[in-house]
Design goal:
2 domains, single chain, 196 residues, 5 strands, binds FE2/S2 (inorganic) cluster, 8 helices, disordered N terminus
Length: 196
């Protein structure tokens, strides 16, 4: 696949898919708050560098807050019980499962979703590597895979293909794209990161 001319950007969550409200000033989120007058308003959440205000019951997960109260639907809901990794996002640079994280616990922290990885039209190197190595089929697991993969490299778990696979084992791919996913991560990690 030609990484310079990707055809599946929506799946990979590039900036081109970002809602106008997020890119601009969060005005759309004010509307969401107004739509739920009975729910308490959380202090601002910082998502992909944008401050947003949401009216949410205190038991709302970060995953539901993102998917149902904003247009940031790149973070996927698979199992909704911490078993599949489809909902992986970064909080203060570390990967977490959004389905097991209360939105209220994220106040004051920097939340990054798949939509926040690209720099305008320039894909994050991991997004480009997934395209180059065909690290996806249906693409449903792919946002979570990429968010985990980016964190994995920061964590330094790239000494071998086996280590990469082990530390990516929390991200399930029902299409079985595992070999290509490992190849993409190995590519980004570079020779210094992988002694396979
Ligand atoms: S949806 Fe969160 S781990 Fe499956
Ligand atoms: S690409 Fe289909 S579930 Fe992973």
């Amino acid at each position: 696949m030609d990484a310079a001319n990707p055809t599946r950007r929506i799946i990979l969550g590039t900036a081109a898919t970002l809602p106008v409200a997020v890119i601009a000033n969060g005005a759309g989120f004010t509307d969401q708050t107004a739509a739920s007058p009975a729910a308490p308003t959380l202090p601002l959440l910082r998502v992909n560098g944008q401050q947003i205000a949401l009216a949410l019951p205190p038991w709302t997960t970060l995953l539901d807050a993102l998917r149902e109260q904003t247009d940031l639907s790149g973070t996927k809901k698979g199992c909704d019980m911490g078993s599949c990794g489809a909902c992986t996002v970064h909080i203060d640079g570390k990967r977490v499962l959004a389905c097991l994280t209360l939105a209220a616990r994220c106040v004051g922290k920097n939340i990054t979703t798949i939509e926040g990885l690209a720099d305008g039209d320039t894909l994050h190197p991991m997004q480009a590597a997934f395209l180059a190595h065909d690290g996806l089929q249906c693409g449903y697991c792919t946002p979570g895979q990429i968010m985990s993969a980016v964190a994995l490299i920061k964590e330094g778990h790239t000494a071998s293909d086996i280590e990469i696979a082990e530390w990516m084992s929390g991200n399930i791919c029902r299409c079985g794209a595992y070999p290509n996913i490992v190849a993409a991560i190995r590519d980004v990690a570079g020779p210094a990161g992988v002694g396979h």
